[in-house]
């Protein structure tokens, strides 16, 4: 790979294919979200790519909207609609790397900090395709029909689906704009999107209008048309890892909800004035509260290598806050990549950061200090738990999502709580003050530690919180599927919750545990979303909020139900 900015040429050894990449002149690490656009052309060489970058306005758009662009080179025989599906997938994954290297993984199976910092981070939920020309457009549409998990939306000019597509297509929704496609192609995407006619050249799903098909007369990619494609199609949709082929959901509009960035800000005053970055949403209804009235605070921690904007798009707690009247904050890990969940003393102190952030928000915003709640995804899920362990006096309840902590993600492992600093601290604090911590923990059936089995990460965290909350600990099975629930979690009560009818394949089993107190309380909930991968599903934050909002932390450290 040549250079580190502008137009680059990269060859993937795994598939012996090449692509041109365009990295706009923007910082590699920033609190904003980067998206990727893969452009499939009939023929690709450097002059052709340079020409389309300039003439179509793609280069300017990439700079303005922080887009990473890829121009894969077709094989000697052009695009092969069967074999090239995997090639394009590999190329999409390789767009994140600035240089050739194999990312090193930690003991827990995640990339090291050094590997993450060496990459241009691109999330899989906002991969967009543009196909131009008879073969390029056909290849883009084939990708959408046969491998939709890697496609959020497609715009195609000048091509149609191959004749035998019905044999391989999976009929999963993908929003598409079509220019010059034949009737058979239009019919396929109408069917795949569950769409109905809106007007003569547009169709949309009645219950999910993002699942749309539109016909446009444009015969070439002009700057004006490209801007329409971005604002009216790509900017609106993302594809989540919920279901085998994913689900099309809306992207949040940061500006619509009044998000305010604090970038490299030193006002928190922790760790000798260390600079921190966070994104804050204060709903209008909270800004207009009568004098003396306070609102809850929700802090959501991003996943490993993610940032505040990516976290906001994934969780959308601020959208719930707009309706429910609470403030949302999305902080950025002190190293701008991940969270120090083991509280290693030679790394940045993210617990101190969290404490300072909470105290700042309660001092400078109308925050009710008795109603501070934490959530997070993946590595951020663990940080939410760690912060609650070390500072239970500040936290009323938590609703972490998809954490793999503290043990090995894949395969059984032994965990000694006393050897893990936050857990050891938490046990001592809990015994001294008899704290309780309400937990609503969400996981998915396509995660590495499903089902819950003896020695997996889920068993360790789930037993820890049961011990913390005075909940009797039962033997975790060697194979969770043998347990009556089929997921390895034998709750005191189990509730089945089905998603809305238009997402009938996604349902939850909620396993509720009760304390051994004279008046038993439901203080731990293991919530399993069936067919979910490593992702925040649309309903996850809503369910978490509906549980945590009923708890308040009293000044004496006790809990109060609202």
Observed structural traits:
24% strand; 10-stranded mixed beta sheet; 15 helices; Rossmann fold; alpha/beta; 562 residues; 24 strands; globular; 2 domains
Assembly state of the chains shown: single chain
Taken together, the total number of domains comes to: 2
CA-based shape: globular
Helical residues, percent: 25-40%
How many helices does DSSP assign? Answer: 15
Extended strand count: 24
**Major sheet description:** 10 strands, mixed
CATH topology of the largest domain: Rossmann fold
In the predicted model, the low-confidence regions spanning at least 5 consecutive residues are none
- What percentage of amino acids are in beta strands? 15-25%
The CATH superfamily of the largest domain is known as Alpha/Beta hydrolase fold, catalytic domain
The CATH architecture assignment of the largest domain turns out to be: 3-Layer(aba) Sandwich
CATH domain class name of the largest domain? Alpha Beta
Could you give the order of strands across the largest sheet? Answer: 1-2-4-3-5-6-7-10-9-8
- Distance N terminus to C terminus? 58 Å
Mean pLDDT: 92
What does this structure look like?
- With 562 residues, the protein is of the alpha/beta class.
- It has helices at 46-55, 58-65, 84-94, 113-117, 134-146, 183-192, 223-232, 284-287, 308-315, 317-324, 350-364, 379-390, 421-433, 457-468, 539-548, and strands at residues 6-12, 17-23, 35-41, 67-72, 127-132, 153-157, 176-179, 196-199, 202-204, 212-215, 237-240, 247-250, 260-265, 276-281, 295-301, 327-331, 367-377, 397-401, 439-444, 493-498, 507-514, 522-529, 551-553, 559-561.
- The strands form four sheets. It has a ten-stranded mixed sheet with strand order 1-2-4-3-5-6-7-10-9-8, with helices on both faces. Strands 13-14-16-15-17-18-19-22-21-20 form a ten-stranded mixed sheet, with helices on both faces. A two-stranded antiparallel sheet has the order 11-12.
- Strand 8 (196-199) and strand 9 (202-204) form a beta hairpin.
- It is globular, with a radius of gyration of 24 Å.
- The model has no long low-confidence stretch (mean pLDDT 92).
């Amino acid at each position: 790979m040549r250079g580190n900015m502008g137009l680059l040429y990269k060859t993937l050894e795994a598939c012996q294919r090449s692509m041109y990449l365009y990295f706009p002149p923007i910082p590699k690490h920033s609190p904003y979200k980067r998206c990727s656009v893969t452009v499939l052309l009939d023929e690709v060489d450097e002059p052709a790519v340079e020409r389309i970058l300039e003439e179509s306005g793609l280069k300017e758009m990439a700079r303005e909207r922080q887009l990473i662009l890829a121009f894969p080179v077709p094989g000697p025989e052009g695009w092969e609609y069967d074999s090239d599906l995997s090639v394009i997938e590999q190329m999409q994954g390789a767009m994140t790397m600035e240089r050739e290297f194999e990312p090193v993984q930690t003991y827990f199976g995640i990339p090291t900090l050094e590997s993450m910092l060496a990459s241009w981070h691109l999330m899989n939920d906002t991969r967009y395709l543009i196909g131009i020309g008879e073969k390029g457009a056909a290849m883009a549409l084939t990708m959408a029909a046969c491998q939709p998990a890697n496609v959020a939306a497609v715009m195609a000019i000048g091509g149609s689906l191959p004749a035998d597509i019905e044999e391989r297509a999976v009929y999963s929704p993908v929003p598409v704009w079509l220019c010059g496609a034949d009737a058979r192609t239009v019919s396929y995407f109408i069917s795949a999107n569950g769409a109905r006619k809106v007007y003569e050249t547009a169709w949309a799903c009645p219950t999910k209008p993002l699942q749309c098909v539109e016909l446009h007369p444009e015969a070439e990619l002009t700057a004006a048309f490209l801007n329409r494609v971005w604002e009216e199609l790509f900017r609106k949709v993302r594809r989540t890892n919920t279901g085998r082929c994913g689900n099309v959901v809306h992207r949040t509009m940061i500006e619509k909800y009044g998000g305010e960035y604090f970038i490299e800000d030193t006002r928190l005053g922790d760790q000798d004035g260390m600079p921190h970055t966070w994104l804050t949403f204060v709903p209008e209804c909270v800004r207009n509260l009568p004098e003396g009235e306070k609102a809850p605070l929700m802090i959501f921690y991003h996943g490993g290598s993610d940032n505040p904007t990516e976290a906001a798009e994934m969780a959308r707690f601020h959208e719930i806050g707009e309706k429910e009247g609470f403030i949302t904050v999305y902080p950025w890990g002190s190293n701008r990549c991940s969270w120090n969940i083991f509280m290693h003393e030679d790394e940045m102190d993210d617990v101190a950061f969290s404490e300072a952030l909470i105290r700042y928000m309660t001092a400078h915003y109308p925050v009710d200090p008795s109603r501070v709640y934490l959530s997070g995804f993946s590595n951020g899920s663990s940080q939410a738990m760690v912060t609650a362990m070390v500072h239970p006096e500040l936290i009323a309840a938590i609703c972490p999502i998809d954490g793999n902590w503290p043990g090995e993600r894949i395969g059984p492992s032994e965990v000694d709580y006393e050897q893990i600093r936050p857990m050891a601290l938490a046990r001592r604090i809990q015994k001294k003050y008899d704290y309780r911590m309400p937990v609503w923990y969400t996981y998915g059936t396509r995660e590495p530690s499903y089902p819950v089995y003896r020695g997996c990460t889920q068993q360790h965290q789930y037993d820890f919180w049961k011990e913390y909350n005075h909940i009797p600990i039962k033997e975790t099975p060697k194979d969770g599927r043998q347990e009556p629930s089929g997921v390895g979690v034998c709750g005191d009560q189990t509730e089945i919750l089905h998603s809305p009818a238009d997402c009938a394949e996604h349902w939850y089993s909620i396993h509720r545990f009760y304390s051994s107190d004279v008046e038993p309380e439901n203080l731990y909930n293991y919530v399993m979303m069936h067919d979910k991968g490593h992702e925040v599903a649309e309903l996850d934050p809503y369910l978490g909020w509906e549980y945590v909002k009923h708890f308040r932390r009293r000044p004496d450290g006790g809990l109060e139900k609202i």
